[in-house]
Amino acid sequence: MRVLVTGSAGHLGEALVRTLRELGYEVVSLDVLESKFTTHVGSIVDRALVRRCLRGVQTVFHPATLHKPHVVTHSAQDFVDTNVTGTLNLLEESVAASVEAFIFTSTTSVFGDSMIPEAGANAVWVTEDVLPVPKNIYGITKAAAEELCRLSHRNFGLPCLVLRTSRFFPEEDDDREMRGAYSPDNLKANEFLFRRVDIEDVVSAHLAAAERARDVGFGRYIISATTPFQPEDLAALRSGAPDVVSQRVPGYESEYRRRRWQMLAGIDRVYVNQRAREELGWRPRYDFQHIIDRLSHGQDLRSPLALQVGAKGYHAETFAEGPYPVEKTFVRNGPHLR
Q: Nearest to residue 55, comparing CAs of 94, 88, 86?
């Protein structure tokens, strides 16, 4: 089978190309950056190039995007061009090429302010039924691209599944306070309880979606590690997360003590992957218990695939304040990134 992978020089794009090649697929891959996982160098904004790449393709995997780390360094128009126009090009050319399945990689960032509980309120149980309220241009353009996928299925019958992935990047957190309070691996292990997923599981979700796309038609799915929490835990999680974790994952404390790690004091949201498991037959492996088991056996918390792909960063330049700038201030001679 011939498939197209966009963003093939990025974290997920490379992971998809690696896996699909190993499974015997004929992979066409497109990215603005050269890499050994990229067969065509160029932009999804270039419709003629997109058309050429889609010849004979049966399934499209579309993770190419401008990300949250680009919000400060790129203009709003850049986001519209890549995330909206680029996706529209792929969808329309996929319809013309009689593509059988279109898998769009979206993000839990589309939920935005809906994931932030008010003071004193319970943690938010985030399912696909939560109304997205994007809080930046990244979330807005990804939500718009999701709607283009829905419209392409409605109007043209293109099977389109939207996968809203949670965090899987290996880079350091952008929050300075979090970086100061937790080691990188400690923080990532904590996040597997509620807002992180291993890239191996993200890839398996994309493969499962491709298998089910023609039967489902259109659907949106949260792709995150399976949480041990239940809705009845949401009140206690806001300020007493360690006690709740001890009840749901007994025994984790000894491994944390051995490593001198800390559990988060409070958790404000929980991503729920139940719909993807039930409707797509997806079987994620890397939940918090699995992470603890790996650590206790001296293994890295990351999957072999995650270790192969490694860290890529999001910019050619480096920034003193973190892995990428999180705000822009203006000085006399122009904008200054922080």
A: 94
What CATH number is attached to the domain comprising 218? 3.40.50.720
In this prediction, residue 142 has a pLDDT band, given cuts at 50, 70 and 90, of very high
Residues 276, 222: contact at Cβ < 8 Å?
yes
Counted domains in the chain? 1
pLDDT digits (tens, 9 = 90+) for 290-318: 999 999 999 999 999 999 999 866 656 55
Top-confidence residue, 174 or 276: 276
Gap between the Cα atoms of 132 and 220, Å rounded: 12
Within a domain: residue 287?
yes
Asked if residues 220 and 162 have their Cβ atoms less than 8 Å apart, the reply is yes
Q: Quick check: is 160 in a domain?
A: yes
CB-CB contact of 25 with 3 (8 Å):
yes
The predicted pLDDT at position 244 comes to: 98
pLDDT-derived band at 173 (thresholds 50, 70, 90) equals confident
- Structure-token pair, residue 113: 């302010």
Q: What is the pLDDT of residues 58-78, one digit of tens each?
A: 999 999 998 877 677 778 999
**Residue 163 belongs to some domain of the structure:** yes
For tokens 């000085």, name the residue.
331
| Containing structural domain, residue 255 | 2-316
Q: Is the pLDDT of residue 119 over 90?
A: no
In a domain, 7, yes or no: yes
